[in-house]
Amino acid sequence: MADYITKLNELLSVAVREKASDLHISANHHPVLRIAGRLVPLVREEILSADDAQGLAFGLMTEEQRQRLNQEKEIDFSYNFENKSRFRINIFFQRGYISSSLRLIPTEVSTIEELNLSPTLHKFTKATQGFVLITGPSSHGKSTTLAALIDEINHTRPDHIITIEDPIEYLFEDDRSVIDQREVYQDTMSFAKALRSTFRQDPDVIMVGEMRDLETMATAITAAETGHLVFATLHTNSASQTIHRVVDSFPSEQQSQVRAQLSGSLLGVVSQRLIPRIKGGLIPACEIMMSTPAVANLIRENKIHELPLVIETSAEIGMITLNRSLASLVKSKEITLESALNYSTNPVELRALVRY
Question: Are 170 and 244 members of one domain?
Fold first, then answer.
């Protein structure tokens, strides 16, 4: 397979045409697509040798990126394919060989409605100050939900928006807002450093692609307290687990203060899953927790285990548990009960909800 650039373009074209979410390239395997959540090997393609996997990966990278890969053994970056599609790429070593995972990024930013998300999320785009966390497992649409929220603000408010991403995924076009998108390693050296710098850049809205360390979390909370609207993501499975994760990231002597800060600045937590849809594709199921005096009080008093009950009993203001979201999708015949049970954190309760 001498002409790696030609083969690479063919594989990327197939990924775009088949509406795949991901393309995986590894030695001793066929190229593999992920379509509607399922892995689909491209069996008509040759099994890739180690040289093939390396050649295809190097075809995606600049010389500087190749050097970084050799030094750090993994690298994230974005790739513009023929000015039609963009990919978020992670290239890494496994058993001494190079492998690549390419995530297809839609060129258009979808709206909350187009993503089948709850209208409750519109409330977050109307706020002028506070902290919103979009959570869930990897590859379950957190970045896409964030993009929808940011773009809604872009189209409705004259704000200065700064995003900090690794790498930049969706490209926003300024409408009513001015948007500055900063990529870690290209435009800044770290999430934490870029976030600290925002205090001198006059932002109204800050989007943090991922809160990876204590300093980033602390600075994000401070930014939300000091007059900014901050959106960020975390890899957690529920609203209560999200609060635990943030608080437990701090030394024990600081945790009481962090709970107090969160109780005052948190606007809400959205925990989402992408579920295979009966008619094809994926559809989100979301737990949504909104900030209320009851929620703030439980966070402040470290009674986080009681948050699920508040969510369960606050449907009238837009809160919903993950199980109720899953049950609603089952009853509307969007997803199967089997799929819902696979993603539920409490299958027994889910079965009871579906029966009613």
Answer: yes
Q: Kindly report the pTM of this predicted structure.
A: 0.91
Domain extent, residue 124, equals 119-320
| pLDDT tens-digit series, residues 302-350 | 999 999 999 999 999 999 999 999 999 999 999 999 999 999 999 999 9
- Structural domain total, the chain: 2
Domain contains 281: yes
pLDDT tens-place string over residues 241-263: 999 999 999 999 999 999 999 99
Note the pLDDT of residue 1. 44
Does the residue 332 lie in any domain?
Answer: no
3-class DSSP string for the chain = CCCHHHHHHHHHHHHHHCCCCEEEECCCCCCEEEECCEEEECCCCCCCCHHHHHHHHHHHCCHHHHHHHHHHCEEEEEEEECCCEEEEEEEEEECCEEEEEEEEECCCCCCCCCCCCCHHHHHHHHCCCEEEEEECCCCCCHHHHHHHHHHHHHHHCCCEEEEEECCCCCCCCCCCCEEEEEEECCCECCHHHHHHHHHHCCCCEEEECCCCCHHHHHHHHHHHHCCCEEEEEECCCCHHHHHHHHHHCCCHHHHHHHHHHHHHHEEEEEEEEEEECCCCCEEEEEEEEECCHHHHHHHHCCCHHHHHHHHHCCHHHCCECHHHHHHHHHHCCCCCHHHHHHHCCCHHHHHHHHHC
Are 201 and 82 part of one and the same domain?
Answer: no
